[in-house]
Design brief:
Elements (H helix, E strand, L loop, with lengths): L1 E3 L1 H8 L6 H13 L4 E3 L1 H12 L17 H14 L1 E2 L6 H12 L5 H13 L4 E3 L12 E3 L6 H6 L2
Parallel strand pairs: 1-2, 1-4, 2-3, 4-5
Helix pairs in contact: 1-2, 1-3, 3-4, 5-6
Amino acid sequence: MILVDTCVLTRLADLNSFDRPAARRAVLAIREAGENLVIVPQNICEFWAVASRKTGSPTKGGENGLGMTIPNIVQWIEWFKRLCTLLPESTDVPAIWESLGKRHIPKGTAVYDTRLVAFMQVYKINHLLTFNTRHFKQYPITLINPKSVGTVWLLTGS
């Protein structure tokens, strides 16, 4: 199983993203290799938050979002749930998240990354597909940058 970080989902949905082709290639290559891509409820919440915010930089009145309508957001979420297996919320996540927080001291939005790692521990997932590899370096997981996925990945499985 490979957990898909929300940043990959947002790149898939952002038709103007420079990283969209890499996200698409990675997802397709990983699926072709027979790997199971998974998401968790937090991914859905994070995507909704980013997708519903205004586009553009905050200095110009934007909110670094995708500026989507709610029906469009719902369509993308349904597509993500067809592309990936949606794992259920787990009552074990809060305790693991708190333990990881005490050990790694995340601040600001990094607390959400720590929560994804807690899901990974609950479900015994070792691989994370993310563009934000530096956000997760302190955790004992295997990071897969979509830009590095290609023929070599298909042949070696990592």
